[in-house]
Amino acid sequence: MKAIHDPGRVLAQGLADIRTQFAVPQGFPPEVLAAAEAAAARKPTDHADRTAVPFVTLDPTSSTDLDQAFAIEEAGPDLLLRYAIADVAWFVADGDAVDIEAWKRGETLYLPDGKAGLYPPVLAERAASLLPDGPRPAIVFAVRIGPDGAARLDGVERAMIRSRAKLGYATVRTQDLPPAFPELARRVRAAESARGAVRVDPPQQEVVALGHDRFALAWRPMRGAEEDNAALSLACNLAVARALLAHRTGLFRVMAGPDDRAIARLRQTARALSLPWPDALDLKAFERTLDAQDPAHAAFMTAIRRAGSGAGYAPWTPGVEPWHAAIAALYVHATAPLRRLADRFVIRAAFALANGLPVPEAVTAAFQRLPEAMARADAIAARIDRAAIDLAETVMLHGREGETFTAVVTDMDGTSARVQLEGLPIVARTRAPDAQPGQRLALRLDRADPARRTLSFIPA
């Protein structure tokens, strides 16, 4: 759960209730654990020896389910990214107990107080995780990044790798990373800008104590190493997407941009946050002016993320372009197979095609089933995220009942007004039959109920 961090466990009881409400799995069935233990003992036999390549991982410091390791070298004017991805398919076979359970889950569910994994820990946090405590089997993508930032897939192989270091976003030093790491990220960002892409990565919200049972939501922006690391995954996923499309197969990540109504609502949200958004500037151009270090900008970035129609998955279909509006390109998910079911099958297809093999029938069939399975998993994850944010908001405002807040109407639905509180990253609804979008309202907090995760405002 990337939206809320709760180091003081202020939200503990509420999070327990969320787990119960959404039936978040607690552990795995015995037969799945037994199958995972047996799979973890499987010795790699089809893997080239790439243990001499100086791979490292870069993740949140506490992470143990490490999907990716990387090494970067110069290749003339290009940069060659060797991107090692956990070889989950080596351990999980189609139709086995672990695979069946993974199809039920779809993805790892994250909450501020822990996660419910897609795969049992013996695989996700040990045998398949690219930890630096010994050789691990991986699928290594060779991705060539040109001076203009364009990414091309040079090859895909099964290999044994040995990570040199488990680096953390909060503690990594420049000298720990490959020398070309920042240049590669710069090239990828330049290519994004050239094609008009804008990826919105809102900072994390953190519950902080103010004393006397008062709490607030503060923003923790993404660190530079975190943003640069995301560029590596982006480059690899773009290169894989082009390769799959060229062979008329694949499972693509697709997303439409915000519609006119959503953009109008965003303009009112910007007004509520006192962000000057010139009428002549479109949303993408305005997004490029945002600074995640600024709390108001951070709140608006979160609003943008919520404003879109949502991303989904689509198999290759003749005559249909699988477009991702935010990335402004063809895009796939292939770099987090320990956390997303779909990635395992995209990786298998890319490996087959890069090595002159037919895509397995089981993979092609999975591409047809995965959109529904992933949509179901994404919906549950989104509802859990929303519930956790609602909980944090009610905890933050609990005890402030009776106070008056200024809010801006961002949208109307009959007599119900959707409002953005000024200066706070909180969206709520109130009855306001005569309100108009853009209008400022004085609202009194009538109730902040952490048990029900609800806020109630009435006209002051």
UniProtKB/TrEMBL annotation:
SMART domains: RNB. SUPFAM superfamilies: Nucleic acid-binding proteins. Transmembrane segments: none annotated. It comes from the Bacteria. Residues 47-356 form the RNB domain. It holds the Pfam family RNB. This is RNB domain-containing ribonuclease. The lineage of its organism: Bacteria, Pseudomonadati, Pseudomonadota, Alphaproteobacteria, Sphingomonadales.
